[in-house]
Amino acid sequence: MTGKCYLVGAGPGDPGLLTVKGRECLEKADVLIYDALSSPEFLRWVRRDCEKIYAGKRAAQHAIPQDKINDLIVAKAQEGKTVVRLKGGDPMIFGRGGEEAAELAEAGVPFEVVPGISSAIAGPAYAGIPVTHRDHCSQLTLFTGHEDPTKEESSIDYESLAKAPGTKVFLMGVARLREICGQFVQHGADPGTPMALTRWATTGRHRTITGTLATMADVAEAEGFKSPAVAVIGDVVLEREKGNWFEHRPLLGERIVVTRTREQAGELSRMLADLGADVMELPTIRIEPPEDRLGFAQLVADVHSYDWLVFTSPNGVERFFEAFFAVYPDARSLGRAQIAAIGPGTAKKIAEYRFATDLLPEKFVAEGLAEAFEKEGIENLTVLWVKAEETRDVISRELTRQGAIVDQCIAYRTVPETEDPTGAAERIRTEGADWITFTSSSTVENFFALDLPWPDGCRAASIGPITSKTLREHGHEPAVEAARHDIPGLVEALGAAVASD
Length: 501
Fold this sequence. Notes:
Blueprint (H helix, E strand, L loop, with lengths): L3 E6 L10 H8 L3 E4 L16 E4 L2 E2 L2 E2 L3 H13 L3 E6 L9 H10 L4 E4 L4 H8 L13 E5 L13 H6 L3 E5 L5 H10 L7 E6 L7 E6 L3 H8 L5 E5 L6 H4 L11 E4 L6 H10 L3 E4 L3 E4 L4 H9 L6 E4 L2 H14 L10 E4 L2 H9 L13 H11 L5 E7 L5 H8 L3 E12 L7 H8 L3 E4 L2 H9 L9 E4 L2 H9 L6 E2 L5 H14 L1
Parallel strand pairs: 1-6, 1-7, 2-3, 2-6, 8-9, 13-14, 13-20, 16-17, 16-18, 18-19, 20-21, 21-22
Antiparallel strand pairs: 4-5, 9-12, 10-11, 10-12, 15-19
C-alpha cells in the first residue's frame, strides 16, 4: 500500500513562520526528511516514533545527494508511510521541490506541496526592508545566484535584469557576489544603487550589511560575510533605517546552548529566541520510564490514600498524571490529597491537568519546600513524593524528621541523550558558544560526559545553587545564577548579564 509524501516549506528559519498546514503534516509524519535550514523546534512537533532523517546540504557539502533524496522519499512512501520532506523556505522557490515532485509523480506516489514563506520575502522584512513600496517601486524580480554547475553558460539575462525597474532579490549568491554586482554595472545599472545582504534571516544569527552595487562585494569581504544570505538591490533598501525592528533585540547574536531534554527545551529556547538569541539545542539527557513500572503504577493507583502529593519537577507531574488518567477516568479519584510543588514551573504543569497547588515554597529548591512544610505542619500525615530515580533525598529525610510518613514514587529516570539530530555538538566544536545554560545537576553531569571542548570565552548560566555546586565540581564557576530558580528567572539573569557587558 503506497503512502503519501508532503513537500513542506519550513520557512526561512523562525519556527513561528511555518504554516499551520505545515505543522499538521509534521504531527502526522511517519518519516521526516529534513534539511539544514530547519529549526530544532520542528523536531518537537513530530511523534516520538517518527523516523527522522537528516538530509541537509550547504553549498558543496551534502549529507545525502539530491538523487538519493529523491530515491529515499519515493521508497519510504512506497512502504505505506506518510513522508514529510521538510525544506527551507518554499520548496518551489530555488528549492528543487519541482524535481522531487516529478520523481514522486513518475513513481506513482501521491504527494502534496505545502508552500512556505521564502527568505526572499521574509529576510528583507526582518531586516526592515519592504521589497515593494509605493514610493520606490511596484515590481519585484527574483533570481538565483547559484545555477547548476554543469551548465556551460549562465541562463541569467543580466542585461534585462539591469534594465528592469523595481526591486531585485537574489538567493544563494554570496560566493559570486562580486561577479553578480559587476554584471549589473557592466550592463548599465547605476553603481550607486542601494544594496543589502541579510545572513541567516529571521534566526538568532540574523545579520544585515548594506552598501551599493559598487561597494557591496568589498563590504561583504571585509565583514567576512558568508552564505546563506539573501540580497536586495534597489531603493527600498533606504527604508531600512526606519523599518528595522528585528535587530534591536537584547540577545541578538548571543549564541546560547540549551541542555534540557528535547521535550522540555522548548520553553527556554522560545524565551531566548524571542529576545534574539541564537539558540543551539543540545539535549544532554532524556526521560525514560522507571525500572519498576509496576511499583510506580501501584503507588499512582493508591494516591487517594495519601494526605499530601509532592511534585519536585514538571517531568514527575507529566508522568504521574499520564499514569493516573490511564487508571481513573474521573479526576475526583485523586481523593483528599493536597498538592505541593517545588516551584512555579512545576505548579504550571500541575495546572495543565486542572489541579491547584496548595503549597508553593518561597525558595524553589528542596530545602525551601521542606521549610514550607515545617510551617504548614505535617506530623503524622502521609506523603507521596513523585520523583526521579536519582535525586537528592532532602524531601524524604526532612519530612520524615518532621514526623511525616513518606513514600517515594519513582516516576521516571534520566539517562544520557545519545542523539544530536540538529548537529548542535558540531556547531559548538566549530563555532563555539557565548553561553551554556544548565537547568539541573543532571544536565551538568551529562554535558561533561559528552567530552565536548569548553568553547573559548564561553560562560555558564545556572538555574540555582544546586546546579551551580555541580558546575564547580567540574571546574566551572557559573557566571550567572538565577535569583529565582526557574526558567524565567534564568532568562532574566542572562539578559541582565548581557546588558551589563
